[in-house]
């Protein structure tokens, strides 16, 4: 990890939970960070709220006679392969997409996952996305489940876990989603794994080059922040919870 990167906080053998609206979102936006965490001895659980079978599987719907069930199966297989490459456990809630609807029962399931993982770090989508109806829904569901899992910070009638650090990963068009990076993760060492994970998501092959280039762009920004010429690739995150430190 480079000085000034987020590596010490997100990739130091920690328990991470990544909540992804669709089955590929975690790959484009956080695969390198997840791989870093695995390499450091940490564990990562990815929750895919949906498979993106209706709105994010365009290549698959070009096939004659395609069915929703078949698309779901393919998307699950792709996500499982990608998760295996970067060492993540995949949990699929299969809530449907476009629109993604996360009702009370699904919130309770997600809160149970949070309690089970007891993560140090939670990562999900930003609150705003003018071009995707499902990403803000995933954001709100994640925040609610996270809060329910930790309660009010006092003894409760249900199991609670310690509050986690909360981050959002970079959206496709950050300037239009209110996304301002606060942390860069140096993924130079895990970029090959990220590429392999992206290649597994064949139903959205058109995004592979975009996110490879984005990692290069963020690597450039991270080099300027740190002065470290060894940083070639990075992923960007925005912290939503304050840090508690002894010194700055």
How does this structure look, described?
The protein has 248 residues and is α/β, with parallel strands linked by helices. The protein has seven helices and seven strands, in the order αβαβαβαβαββααβ. The chain has one domain (7-239): Rossmann fold (3-Layer(aba) Sandwich), CATH 3.40.50. Helix content is 39%, strand content 15%. Strand 2 (43-48), helix 3 and strand 3 form a beta-alpha-beta unit. Helix 3 (68-86) packs antiparallel against helix 6 (191-200) and helix 4 packs across helix 5. The longest helix has 19 residues, at 68-86. The chain is globular, with a radius of gyration of 17 Å. The chain starts with 6 loop residues before the first helix and ends in a 9-residue tail after the last strand.
Strand content: 5-15%
Tally of separate domains: 1
What is the molecular shape?
Answer: globular
Q: What's the CATH H-level superfamily name?
A: LmbE-like
Give the class-level CATH name. Answer: Alpha Beta
Poorly predicted spans: 1-9
Q: What is the CATH topology classification name?
A: Rossmann fold
Fraction of residues in helix: 25-40%
Quick one: biggest sheet? 7 strands, mixed
Q: How would you spell out the order of helices and strands?
A: HEHEHEHEHEEHHE
Radius of gyration: 17 Å
Estimate the mean pLDDT confidence: 94
Number of strands: 7
Distance between the termini: 19 Å
Instruction: Just name the CATH architecture.
Output: 3-Layer(aba) Sandwich
| Helix and strand composition category | alpha/beta
* Helical segment count: 7
Physical arrangement of strands within the biggest beta sheet = 3-2-1-4-5-7-6
């Amino acid at each position: 990890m480079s000085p000034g990167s987020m590596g010490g906080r997100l990739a130091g053998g920690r328990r991470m939970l990544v909540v992804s609206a669709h089955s590929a979102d975690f790959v484009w936006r956080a695969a390198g960070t997840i791989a870093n965490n695995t390499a450091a001895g940490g564990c990562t659980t990815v929750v895919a709220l949906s498979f993106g079978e209706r709105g994010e599987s365009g290549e698959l719907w070009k096939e004659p006679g395609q069915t929703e069930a078949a698309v779901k199966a393919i998307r699950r297989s792709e996500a499982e392969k990608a998760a295996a490459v970067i060492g993540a456990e995949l949990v699929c809630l299969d809530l449907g997409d476009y629109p993604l609807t996360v009702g009370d029962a699904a919130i309770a399931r997600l809160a149970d996952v949070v309690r089970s993982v007891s993560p140090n770090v939670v990562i999900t989508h930003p609150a705003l996305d003018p071009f995707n109806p499902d990403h803000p829904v995933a954001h709100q569901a994640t925040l609610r489940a996270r809060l329910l899992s930790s309660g009010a910070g006092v003894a409760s009638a249900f199991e609670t876990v310690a509050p986690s650090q909360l981050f959002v990963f970079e959206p496709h068009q950050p300037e239009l989603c209110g996304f301002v990076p606060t942390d860069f993760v140096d993924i130079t060492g895990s970029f090959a794994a990220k590429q392999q994970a992206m290649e597994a998501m064949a139903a959205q092959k058109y995004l592979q080059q975009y996110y490879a280039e984005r990692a290069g762009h963020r690597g450039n920004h991270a080099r300027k922040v740190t002065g470290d010429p060894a940083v070639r690739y990075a992923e960007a995150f925005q912290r939503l919870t304050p840090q508690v430190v002894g010194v700055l």
